Amino acid sequence: MTLPFVYAPPIEPWLEVLYQDKDLIVLNKPSGLLTNPGRGPQLADCLLSRVQQQYPLAQLVHRLDMATSGVVVIALRRKAEAALKQQFADRIVRKRYLAVVWGKLAQSSGSIDVPLLADSDNPPKQKICFNSGKAAVTHYRVLQQLADRALVELQPVTGRSHQLRMHMLHLGHPILGDAFYAHPNALAAAPRLLLHAAELQLFQPYNGKPLHFSADSDFVTAAGQLKTL
C-alpha cells in the first residue's frame, strides 16, 4: 500500500545563500523542498517563493527535483533571466552531481547515451524510448566503491527530467532512496534520494565573468568519502 504524499519542506535553514550579485542569487537547496510551486496552496512553499519574499522579480532559470539537493541559480532581473536561460539552452553551463548508487559498477567510468520520454501512463516518471525519446547523455565516474554501493560523479550533457535517475537505473544501479525508480532494497538503503548538485559553472550574465559554485552534501565528507547513513 502506497502512503499518501505529505509535503513537509525543511525550514532550517530557510535559505542557504552561496553567492549573490545584482543579477542572480545562488542557493544550496535542501532535499525535500520544491524548487518551484506545485499545484495547490499546500505546495506553495518552495525555493523560488522564499527568494521572492525578498526579491519579488526573481525567476527560475533551471530546477532540481524536490528530492534532489544542491546548487540552484535564480535570476533577480528579467534580462539576467533571459541570458541565463540561454546559457542552459546552449549547454554552456557545466554541472557536476554526486550520487550514491546500488551495487558494484562493472566499469569505473563511462558515458550513457539513452533517449528519454515522459511516461504518460505514470507521471511524473520517465521511460527509455529509442523511437521518440529526446536525446540524453550523461558521463559518470566512480569515486568510491563499497560492498553494496558506490559514490559516483555524474556530469549530464543534456538536462532531461529524471535523466540521472533513469540513466543509473539503465546501468542497473538505481540511486539509493529513489522513491520513483529504486527497487525496495535500494529505496530502503537511504533516508532520502542520495543525489546532490555539487557544482555549477556559468557566466555572469552582465559582464561575462566565469562563475563557479559548489555546495557540500550531507552524505559525503570533506575528504570526498561516503558518510555512514
Explain this structure:
This protein is of the alpha+beta class and 229 residues long. It has one domain (17-214): Pseudouridine synthase (2-Layer Sandwich), CATH 3.30.2350. Helices cover 14% and strands 31% of the residues. It has four helices and twelve strands, in the order ββαββαββββββααββ. The protein has helices at residues 47-52, 78-89, 163-170, 184-188, and strands spanning 17-20, 24-29, 59-60, 69-75, 94-102, 109-113, 116-118, 126-128, 137-145, 149-156, 195-203, 210-214. The strands form two sheets. Strands 1, 2, 3, 4, 5, 6, 9, 10, 11 and 12 form a ten-stranded mixed β-sheet that branches. A two-stranded antiparallel ribbon has the order 7-8. A hairpin with an 8-residue loop joins strand 3 and strand 4 (69-75). The longest helix is centred in the middle third of the chain and has 12 residues, at 78-89. It starts with 16 loop residues before the first strand and ends in a 15-residue tail after the last strand. 33% of the residues are buried.
Q: How much is the average pLDDT?
A: 95
Please give the radius of gyration in angstroms. 17 Å
Taken together, the total number of domains comes to 1
Total of helices: 4
**Runs with pLDDT <50, length 5+?**
none
Number of strands: 12
EC number: 5.4.99.-
Family: Belongs to the pseudouridine synthase RluA family.
Enzyme class: isomerase
Function: Dual specificity enzyme that catalyzes the synthesis of pseudouridine from uracil-746 in 23S ribosomal RNA and from uracil-32 in the anticodon stem and loop of transfer RNAs. Responsible for synthesis of pseudouridine from uracil.
